[in-house]
Design goal:
This protein is of the alpha/beta class and about 425 residues long. It contains 21 helices and 15 strands. A six-stranded mixed β-sheet has the order 1-6-5-2-3-4, sandwiched between helices. Strands 9-15-14-11-12 form a five-stranded mixed β-sheet. β14 and β15 form a beta hairpin. It holds the Pfam family tRNA-synt_1b. It is found in: Cytoplasm.
Length: about 425
């Protein structure tokens, strides 16, 4: 073994609970472990990253990781932590999502089958689809009592007086299905460890119970803490929804900004969980950060490492350039190189006004651009004063009152950025 997996998780703050004997079990020889991934979208989001990082650390420790796509369970929905059932997916959508998720996992895990501990992707739909209800009731259901299932927190919560929805039979049996996955992987692949978030402990231990009762073997469990933010808001979410790994859903610029904007307390925690930096490197970074917190070295390093890991160095460079656009450190050529999605992400919420294309083609004078056509400024007089004070720039370059905006100024053939001083930004959109 190259390193002790449990110790690695512990110093990184990634260990919530482990079944007794797990560490010793992993130290004996190469073992196999799995993490289940819900395939309800064709991309992972950063909430999935902790489980993926656990699998990567597991592989780096010399063990064999399995990523289990929950094709069968994705058709049902997992009750833990949810108050409502999920939308169910058809086979075609599940197959598409699985392929997209595998492509993302390949950035983290080595799927090379030449390696003894090469990662493997499995889908529980493959072994559940031909399992009849009668067989399942006979071969699996009879081994676990209802009392045992009712004692799980995820079930208790949904059956408590606070829950208005109650719980369907389908959801109630979810822990048996997840438990059976563990038994199947134990029998077919000698997979002896399941990992997941702390809310999965009940489902995982149902699996270890099935391995004991049906497989006459011993399964192990490790859970990581659910990631939280210091201010109590939900990790991995913004007002616009989830932070996805897919660039079509979340641009690398927005992705980078999410990590850059973390609080000092969260950055010190996240840099251990979401990067592969060593303990010494991280302790040194935290020390440097404490000496000059205003420089935000910790947040910058975190944002850089995660953006390169999920996207690429080129995407990181573009995200940094895009970030500089807002803070006045960029040039007109930087602006011209922005793609439309990033442009709109950067200037989200900035006042916009639409002008007819003909006006730009004829040449739009600055007074019209600032007041008459757009109402960015309250009056033509205010626009004149700002221009006399040399406070106005078009696409980051200072202009005088006689400047005309033409189609040469258009970014992506559609936008012009006007600044008044350092603080006020306006967007002209040509329609």
């Amino acid at each position: 073994m190259t390193k002790n997996f449990v110790q690695e998780l512990t110093w990184r703050g990634m260990l919530h609970d482990a079944m007794p004997g797990t560490e010793e079990h992993l130290q004996e020889k190469m073992r196999a472990a799995y993490v289940g991934i819900d395939p309800t979208a064709d991309s992972l989001h950063i909430g999935h990253l902790v489980g993926v990082m656990m699998l990567r650390h597991f592989q780096l420790s010399g063990h064999k990781p399995y990523a289990l796509i929950g094709g069968a369970t994705g058709m049902i929905g997992d009750p833990s932590g949810k108050s409502k059932e999920r939308n169910l997916l058809d086979e075609e959508a599940l197959a598409h999502n699985q392929a997209a998720i595998k492509a993302q996992l390949e950035r983290f895990l080595d799927f090379s089958q030449q390696e003894e501990n090469g990662a493997v992707l499995v889908n529980n739909y493959d072994w559940m689809k031909d399992f009849s209800f009668l067989e399942f009731a006979r071969d699996v259901g009879k081994h676990i009592t209802v009392n045992y299932m009712m004692a799980k927190d995820s079930v208790k919560k949904r059956l408590s007086s606070e829950s208005k929805e109650g719980m369907s039979f389908t959801e109630f049996t979810y822990q048996l299905l997840q438990g059976y996955d563990f038994l199947h992987l134990y029998n077919q692949h000698e997979c002896s460890l399941q990992m997941g978030g702390s809310d999965q402990w009940g489902n995982i231990t149902t699996g270890t119970e099935l391995i004991r009762r049906i497989g006459n073997g011993k399964g192990f469990a490790i859970t990581c803490p659910l990631i939280t933010k210091a201010d109590g808001t939900k990790f991995g979410k913004t007002e616009g929804g989830n932070i996805w790994l897919d660039t079509e859903r979340t641009s690398p610029y927005k992705f980078y900004q999410y990590w850059l904007n973390t609080s000092d307390e969260d950055a010190a925690k996240y840099i251990k969980i979401f990067t592969f930096l060593s303990q010494d490197e991280i302790e040194n970074l935290i020390k440097v950060h404490h000496e000059a917190p205003h420089a935000r070295q910790l947040q910058k390093k975190l944002a850089e490492e995660v953006t390169i890991m999920v996207h690429s160095k080129e995407d990181l460079d573009n995200a940094i350039k895009a970030s500089n656009v807002l803070f006045g450190k960029s040039t007109a050529s930087d602006l011209r190189n922005l793609d439309q999605k990033t442009f709109l992400d950067i200037f989200e919420g900035v006042p916009q006004a639409e002008v007819k294309r003909q006006l730009i083609e004829d040449g739009l004078d600055m007074i019209a651009a600032l007041a008459a056509e757009t109402n960015f400024l309250k009056s033509n007089g205010e626009a004149r004063r700002a221009l006399k004070e040399n406070a106005i720039s078009v696409n980051k370059e200072k202009v005088k009152e006689d400047y005309m905006i033409t189609k040469e100024d258009l970014i992506n053939d559609t936008y012009v950025i006007i600044n008044k001083g350092k603080k006020n930004t306006y967007i002209l959109k040509v329609v």
